[in-house]
């Protein structure tokens, strides 16, 4: 482990947020000397972010906790194009109104993790549509485009992988990396920005921005990327059979969010506690070393701490109590997700509507396997119509059916 002087890089290193740093010594010296303003960009492609974005949200939280100033850059402009990084096909183009609605929803998520305001370390949210939509094409090509070579752009993973697979990459998307680099330059001018953070797939885009700021303005700026967060089985963080783990309670209930963390693999508990909770490192080391079945106690702490940070302590307490009542006592917790059945709904449709299964076909397969229960009785008939009761899939997925 590298010995850093600044509290910022120390905490990022100790908790596992650092994958690459463009100039670790220079950034460490700067962060030890003065508050650093840093940003991460988020495109507004959905009404909420999901757990796959949580490590980026948390690294901004760590910045603020260490006495630095985070900027949340909403991609109101770049969302109109779409980032090709990690994508096999072009994104659906959204209208301006759709994008602004999504930004409003995403801001509500950030307000749970960051303190916004006018102070020196208060977070601010800015929208790159403010400057990108005002650019004039010919001046932009002359002033910015000349600093990029097609030769180099073709070497970046976001471009090369699409071309290697012979999948279309539009000219629109090809411009994305130039606009992201320009964001870095513009933010350094407007807000004295010195640092861009992002996932490991953003390394090339971040380096582009650093070079552009140096070439045009002579500004020294830095970049940090986070590792790709995977689960112990090698899966991508936040991807489940039931779909995305949303950070908005209207898209995913606090109870289901709690359950996501409670179901973490034993080997992931320590890593997730470091990344996604504020617990002290000594306590995390104690929890992750609990022997045998006691590791489940650490998972309850992880689930409760993570849920409290996003949804509040009361929602986390209610979720934990519902889980205890449902699993330990065989009862029905008040906080279980519910599905209104009206005059009745098929058991197959209920499983799919609740998100327990991604399709009716999968629901029928689970019934055939004997994995579905109604009021703790195994369901064998996929044609069954249900009105009310406790519906369960396996040992961990439960919901209430109400007329």
TrEMBL record:
Family: Belongs to the class-I aminoacyl-tRNA synthetase family. TyrS type 1 subfamily.
Annotated residues for binding of ATP: 239
GO function terms (MF aspect): tyrosine-tRNA ligase activity
Assembly and interaction partners: Homodimer.
Short motif 'KMSKS' region, span: 236-240
InterPro entries: aa-tRNA-synth_Ic, Rossmann-like_a/b/a_fold, S4_RNA-bd_sf, SYY-like_C, Tyr-tRNA-ligase, Tyr-tRNA-ligase_bac-type, Tyr-tRNA-ligase_bac_1
Organism per entry: Sphingomonas telluris
CDD domains, alphabetized: TyrRS_core
Location(s) in or outside the cell: Cytoplasm
Lineage: Bacteria, Pseudomonadati, Pseudomonadota, Alphaproteobacteria, Sphingomonadales
Function, in words: Catalyzes the attachment of tyrosine to tRNA(Tyr) in a two-step reaction: tyrosine is first activated by ATP to form Tyr-AMP and then transferred to the acceptor end of tRNA(Tyr).
Keywords: Aminoacyl-tRNA synthetase, ATP-binding, Cytoplasm, Ligase, Nucleotide-binding, Protein biosynthesis, RNA-binding
Protein name as it appears in the record: Tyrosine--tRNA ligase
Keyword field contains Glycosyltransferase: no
Enzyme Commission (EC) number: 6.1.1.1
Top-rank EC class of the record's enzyme: ligase
Entry annotated with the keyword Oxidoreductase: no
Pfam family, one: tRNA-synt_1b
Amino-acid positions noted as binding L-tyrosine in the UniProt annotation, renumbered to this chain: 39, 176, 180
PANTHER family for this protein: TYROSINE--TRNA LIGASE, MITOCHONDRIAL, TYROSYL-TRNA SYNTHETASE
Catalyzed chemical reaction(s): tRNA(Tyr) + L-tyrosine + ATP = L-tyrosyl-tRNA(Tyr) + AMP + diphosphate + H(+)
Domain Tyrosine--tRNA ligase SYY-like C-terminal: start-end pairs: 334-388
Motif ('HIGH' region): 44-53
């Amino acid at each position: 482990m590298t010995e850093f002087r600044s509290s910022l890089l120390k905490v990022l290193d100790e908790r596992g947020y650092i994958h690459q740093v463009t100039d670790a010594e220079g950034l460490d010296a700067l962060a030890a000397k003065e508050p650093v303003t840093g940003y991460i960009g988020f495109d507004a492609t959905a009404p909420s972010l999901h757990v796959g974005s949580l490590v980026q949200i948390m690294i901004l939280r760590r910045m603020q906790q260490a006495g630095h100033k985070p900027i949340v850059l909403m991609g109101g402009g770049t969302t109109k194009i779409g980032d090709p990084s990690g994508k096999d096909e072009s994104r659906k183009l959204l209208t301006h109104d759709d994008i602004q609605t999504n930004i409003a929803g995403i801001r509500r998520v950030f307000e749970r993790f960051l303190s916004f305001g006018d102070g020196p370390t208060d977070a601010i949210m800015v929208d790159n549509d403010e400057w990108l939509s005002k650019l004039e094409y010919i001046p932009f090509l002359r002033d910015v485009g000349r600093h990029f070579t097609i030769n180099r752009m073709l070497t970046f993973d976001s471009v090369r992988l699409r071309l290697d697979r012979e999948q279309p990459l539009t000219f629109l998307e090809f411009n994305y990396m130039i606009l992201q680099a320009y964001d870095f330059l513009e933010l350094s001018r407007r807000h004295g920005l010195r640092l861009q953070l992002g996932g490991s797939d953003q390394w090339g885009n971040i380096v582009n921005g650093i070079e552009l700021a140096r070439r045009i303005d002579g500004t020294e700026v830095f970049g940090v990327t986070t590792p790709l967060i995977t689960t112990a089985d090698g899966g991508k963080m936040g991807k489940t059979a039931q779909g995305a783990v949303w950070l908005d309670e209207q898209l995913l209930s606090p109870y289901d969010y709690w359950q996501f963390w409670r179901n973490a693999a034993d080997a992931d508990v320590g890593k997730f506690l470091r990344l996604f909770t504020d617990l002290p490192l000594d306590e995390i080391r104690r929890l992750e070393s609990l022997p045998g079945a006691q590791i489940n106690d650490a998972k309850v702490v992880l689930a409760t701490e993570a849920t409290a940070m996003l949804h509040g302590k009361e929602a986390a307490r209610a979720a934990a109590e519902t889980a205890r009542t449902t699993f330990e006592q065989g009862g029905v917790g008040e906080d279980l997700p519910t599905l209104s059945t009206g005059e009745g709904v098929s058991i197959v449709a209920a499983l799919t509507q609740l998100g327990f299964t991604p399709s009716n076909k999968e629901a029928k397969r689970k019934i055939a396997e004997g994995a579905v229960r109604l009021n703790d009785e195994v369901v064998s008939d996929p044609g069954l119509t249900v009105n009310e009761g406790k519906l369960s899939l396996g040992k961990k997925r439960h919901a209430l059916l109400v007329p």
